[in-house]
Amino acid sequence: MRSHTYNSCLWTGLALLLLTVPATAQMKVGDNVSMNLNGTVGVGYDGNFGNTQLSDHSSAVNGDLNLNGFYYNPNFLNFYIRPIYNRSQENSGSQSLTNSTNVSAGAGIFSGSHFPGSISYGKTIDSTGNFGLPDVQGFTTHGNSTQFGIGWAELMPNLPPVTAQYSQTTSSATVFGSSDNEHADSKNFNLTSNYMLRGWLMSARFNDVYTKTQFPSFLTAGEFNTGDENSKTFFYNTTHKLPLRGSVALNYAYGNFHGDGNGTDTTGSNNSVTGNVSLIPWARLTTNFGVQYDSSLSGMVEQQLVAAGGIAPQVNFGSNDHAVSIYNFDTLQIVKNVSGTFNFNHTDETAYGKSLSVNHFSGIINFHFEKPLWGAFTFYAGVNDQSSDAGHQGTGLVAGANFDKRLGGIEWGAAFSYAQDVQTVLATEVTSNYSYLANARKRMSRHWMWNSNFHGFKTGISAVTGTSSHSEGFGTNLTYRSYAFGGTYNQSYGTALLTAGGLVPTPTPITPVLGADQYLLVNGSSYSFNVTANPIHRWSVSTAYSRALSDTKTPTLYSAASSKVFTAFTQVQFRKVSAGGGYTYLMQGIGVTPGSPPINFSSFYVGIQRWFNGF
């Protein structure tokens, strides 16, 4: 106890000493090293308490430094070090609910030469984060992370430039209210290059990514999900100008991965070749012709899921699944305010052991009108039509509108879109979707301003029950001079993909062919309120409250969660010194264990801080 008190007093004394340090000029060490140092240091009193920990109160030191410098010349060797100590929403602009400490450092070498390089390192301790949910507030987490990166480039004249980068990240976090941890390790190596040769602009990219992840088990009612994966992708593109203001583009992409998800090995790969010719034979007409070949439809979808964060996804459209597509896309300016777009696609596809030929046609007419008196208005309408070897498969409507107008002293904006029978990766499946957006803005007086918005969407596979997803949201804000009041409400429902960063919307609208531990049915809603104010010059006050409810389901498991977060922060600035304080309250419950109480966590801080420019 005496040692703890002594250390606190020592740090407090050092902090108070720094508060009086005068600013000096840039510092030079010897003849070749130049450095600048500035930052903020603070001292105060803080405490925290809750139903899962003992009450703790102590004096607290916090601050951040920014050291920059170079050796000999900035283009030869430059460096930076940026430590941050004990920063949170209560004593700074940090978004961490807990007192977080981190350091970042890096250096650049030979940045003015043909072979520049760089290196960086970062470490964060006890920082809060978010395990996300689609379109609503996610789960609050706290944990540690480490990052390392190194890069080098070759920029020789008359040679293709090459850039190489390697990065490594390790993180671990615990969701407040849950005892299980989330772990994520990743290693990423990539090479990029581009070059112009005899009118051909060429670019290439290679990427090798390794990930190892343990997902928090509360999402799947206590069943742990682990996985590791290695994916490699290669992409090559080349373009060349053609007559008639045209161009030709050729692309080749290859991707493969190997992973282990909960003890099950899975592999996938796909070769994709595309060619496209674009011409403008008439000032009003643009036409495109192209062809695309994919050697594996399963591998193509798996690569999309891997890119979205999925671990070792398992998609199976049968053996020898592949597709060849030939397409034409045209845009025609019919008259001044009327244009049309026309698209034709013929696909030969093999999936689930069956071969099928499908023709897809779409035609859309666009009308745009804009006058100062009437505002701006855009309307479009058209059809999607699809037929196959088995005959006509259906015709769907495509329509939408956009509107901007000042009416009754209010600036109105609205948009709506609707589409039926939109083609997917599988020729036999089409989706339907609609979305809408409305916003209003009004200056009620010289000092009063109000704005509001409402938005939503729904999508799903037309012929498959249970594949739809939808989301709705509303937000409003009222300002008076230096005061602002705001609120939001969001809700969402549908399938989501489990990733290391949380649940994300499925990146491709296909029938849920993934396992129950990869696709989850999510139902969530959240609302929030916030107030900010500057009552007098250099005095700021802010407070926010949010509430969220959600549940996740698999075919056999169910888990529910809820959370409340309240934060308040105030600060008074006087020259380089500021005084302030903050308060945080978090309640979060995870329904993994029936009857388990939610966690309650509260913390506060009061103190002073000073900005300084050391040298």
Specify the oligomeric state. single chain
Radius of gyration: 29 Å
Low-pLDDT runs of 5+ residues are 1-6, 13-17, 512-516
From the spread of the alpha carbons, the general shape counts as globular
Distance between the termini: 37 Å
Largest sheet: 28 strands, antiparallel, barrel
Helix content: under 10%
Beta-strand percent range: over 45%
Describe the structure.
5% of the residues lie in helices and 71% in strands. The protein has helices spanning 2-18, 297-307, and strands at residues 27-29, 33-50, 53-71, 77-87, 100-109, 117-133, 136-154, 162-175, 181-197, 200-215, 225-242, 246-261, 264-282, 285-294, 322-335, 338-351, 354-371, 375-388, 391-407, 410-423, 430-443, 448-461, 469-480, 483-499, 502-505, 519-533, 539-553, 558-574, 577-590, 599-613. 26% of the residues are buried. A hairpin with a 6-residue loop joins strand 20 (410-423) and strand 21 (430-443). The protein has a 28-stranded antiparallel β-barrel.
